[in-house]
Design goal:
alpha+beta, Herpes Virus-1, 5 strands, about 15% helix
Length: about 90
């Protein structure tokens, strides 16, 4: 049985991460972060859920930019915050 593609993938754009060196908010606050999750709609760089402040998730819900991906080499998956699943 084939699964339907995530409808939020239509939000994906060609973007350049704003701050590839770190989470935008964490850099401003001086807070530590774990892995980074660039938004694939606008290029915002947030930190993942295992980071203390979860800026990637906050950005997704405030802006309704729901698809992000990892920056780690070799990782090619995408995450949908609306569906809490790989997209």
């Amino acid at each position: 049985m084939a699964t339907e593609p995530d409808p939020h993938l239509s939000m994906v754009r060609q973007v350049t991460p704003h701050t590839p060196e770190g989470c935008e908010e964490c850099l401003r606050l001086g807070s530590p972060w774990g892995h980074l999750r660039p938004c694939l709609t606008c290029g915002h760089v947030g930190c993942r859920d295992s980071s203390p402040l979860k800026h990637g998730r906050a950005h997704a819900h405030v802006e309704q930019h729901l698809i992000a991906e990892p920056v780690e080499p070799g990782e090619t998956w995408r995450w949908c915050y609306a569906h809490e699943a790989m997209a």
